[in-house]
Amino acid sequence: MSIDLQKIKQPFFIGVAGAGMSAIAQYLQGTGMQVSGSDRFFNEGKAGDIKTKLEAAGIRCFLQNGEGIHAGTDLVVASTAIEDTVVEIKKAKELNIPVIRRSELLALIAASKKTIAVGGTSGKSTTTGMLFDVLQYAGKQPSVISGAGLVSLIKKGEIGNAFVGHGDWLIIEADESDGSIVQYRPEIGLLLNIEKDHKELEALMSLFEIFKNNSRRFCVNQSNEHSRKLSVNSSNDFCVDGSCPGAGFQATGFSQEGFVISFNVNGQPFKIHILGRHNMENAVAATAAAALAGVSLEEAAAALENYEGIYRRSQILGEKNGIWVIDDFAHNPVKCAAAIRSCQPVSSKVVAWFQPHGYTPTKFLRREFVSEIANALRPQDEIWMSEIFYAGGTTTKDISAGDLINELKALGKNAYFVADRNNFLQEARGHLRPGTALLLMGARDPSLEQFSANIYGQL
């Protein structure tokens, strides 16, 4: 199917409230199209303020019952979760309206701009946000389509995961979990890391190799044992552990004081109001990609000193009764371990709560979850888990978060299972004291933001 974006006037998005879909919908609305969409969360009344913000951007929102699709609709975009049996897909086909998936549309948009595609199994949203800030500070007037909201845009009342700039550059996240990363042919491909997540390493390496071959210029993290194998030109690459002397961008001198990290890139000092060594890695990645786009290290450092963060990525909710509360999107083993470690320099004790998502992903990564979390915990730290988030559909519920907790207990870790997360604070309250960092982790569940806010409010 050949789609000419220049001729599309009234696209309709099925699943428009999703992070990926809402971003593209806002982007197209910002380019002058008349966008509309539906979502099952509208039917269930669970969309939070996303519907209000979409409508404020000029996007018409409908229940997911087919009423929003009409003869004037000239393109229907469906998220990967939407099956062909959905009534709106059937209606689109009856009206001979072309139907494409989100990733196909994003590939078309990316082909129309000078695109920087950010790939890797961890850190994509944060690096995308940092890169947007750096290019914007440098006067490049970039556009962005992200998987998470930028706090700087959220403060303006927007969802924050999309922005239409007047320049040539577009920054996107390239997703490996659904294989769509192979559809992009970016001006600059940025590879952050490769770890087992969603797929086995062998399958991921194949996907990222295609990503490399499709990129006009390619930049990889040589500190990661898997991504360094795909290096094309080491002068474009970055390194954060001193083990790769050929990399063009070297980070040294990492330190964290409170909620601020400091380091140098090729001798240029950086200071960012954020937690964790992993975020130094994201910042150096953004700096390296920005350099390929013509931005100096000095400009990158100045931009990132004012970086305001990403929604639910090491997001500090505040401090109450001597307890700091941090909300984080961490959901795979490496991300959970990094989030725990990022809180340790600011606390005498970390109490981490995690809600795994999906029975199949949890079973697939069971060994890695136990190993990574166990290695991250100090003797005084604790890990709590509630039952696995179930989003619906057909699955075999043959694993429990309690199974992971039992394995962590067997390793001598302070591990606790509280099946119903609504009982978490009551059971954990006696474990919280001044100087504790309470870290709340999880993804995919749209109610997590409110859950974290409630925990903070009830401390």
TrEMBL record:
GO biological process, one term: peptidoglycan biosynthetic process
Coiled coil: none
Keyword field contains Iron: no
GO terms for MF: acid-amino acid ligase activity; ATP binding
Pfam assignment, any one: Mur_ligase_C
Protein origin, superkingdom: Bacteria
Ranges of residues in domain Mur ligase central: 118-290
Residue intervals passing through the bilayer: none
Keywords linked to the UniProt accession: ATP-binding, Cell cycle, Cell division, Cell shape, Cell wall biogenesis/degradation, Ligase, Nucleotide-binding, Peptidoglycan synthesis
Family annotation (PANTHER family): UDP-N-ACETYLMURAMATE--L-ALANINE LIGASE, UDP-N-ACETYLMURAMATE--L-ALANINE LIGASE-RELATED
Protein name per its UniProtKB record: UDP-N-acetylmuramate--alanine ligase
Organism: Niabella ginsenosidivorans
